[in-house]
Amino acid sequence: MRIDIISAVPALLQGPLDHSIVKNAIDKDLVEIHIHDLRDHTEDKHNKIDDYPYGGGAGMVLTAQPIFSCIEMLTDEREYDEIIFTAPDGKVFDQADANTLSLKKNIIILCGHYKGVDQRVRDALITSEYSIGDYVLSGGELPAMVIADAIVRLIPGAMGDSASALDDSFQDGLLDAPVYTRPNTFKGLKVPEVLLSGDPKKVTQWKREQSLKRTKERREDLYKKFKKEH
């Protein structure tokens, strides 16, 4: 898989790529992640990539030219399955989206910044738009890394235990059950006996019950959706 990330502030993207599962996947050649600085593609003599919005209003807007130039350069080199824009008004990114995108070959993620991007970019180039929640950040770099991380960890071989991703919260529409590790008693707090029983059937049943209980208590919206579908 190849992920190209286009940013007005590319330095914001470096740290998350140098650690944990994403770095492991890069080192194993399971994924290529390339970061592109919009300023490398501007034709403005002052190296500007933003301008004031037509019609007035506060804030600046990323101009169309450097974005079109960067994306056209990339799409001339290879075909892309998705060109994603991170935006507060996009679809809220969820596990199903991560699952779908993890099966793609080439993806571009354009990071929003300032007040946004010229709408012509969104109309002409973007195939999917995602938000990571109902709040506003300084830019789309953090959402881009959230999306990239969620995708990469699903690539076979990226995680030490590939089956672990299948047990994550949201994979089946529910939150995960509580988890415990050694010792079985700590400061008087004990691990549930069923997890020490060695009975896989009972353990599976307990985990399912706890998953349903936790989802109902903490995410009633997910619980209702799950019950409706099942």
> Which architecture of the largest domain does the CATH hierarchy give at level 2?
3-Layer(aba) Sandwich
Low-pLDDT parts are: none
Approximately what portion of the residues adopt beta-strand conformation? 15-25%
Reading the helices and strands in chain order gives: EHHEEEHEHEHEHEEHH
Rg calculated over all Cα atoms: 22 Å
> What is the third-level CATH name, the topology of the largest domain?
Alpha/beta knot
User: Structural class, from secondary structure content?
Assistant: alpha/beta
Q: Could you name the CATH class of the largest domain?
A: Alpha Beta
Walk me through what this model shows.
The protein has helices at residues 14-17, 20-27, 64-77, 95-101, 119-124, 141-152, 200-218, 220-229, and strands at residues 2-7, 32-37, 50-51, 61-62, 82-92, 106-111, 128-131, 185-186, 189-190. With 230 residues, it is α/β, with parallel strands linked by helices. It folds into two domains: 2-152, SPOUT methyltransferase, trefoil knot domain (Alpha/beta knot), CATH 3.40.1280; 169-229, tRNA(m1g37)methyltransferase, domain 2 (Trp Operon Repressor, Chain A, Orthogonal Bundle). It is elongated and about 70 Å long.
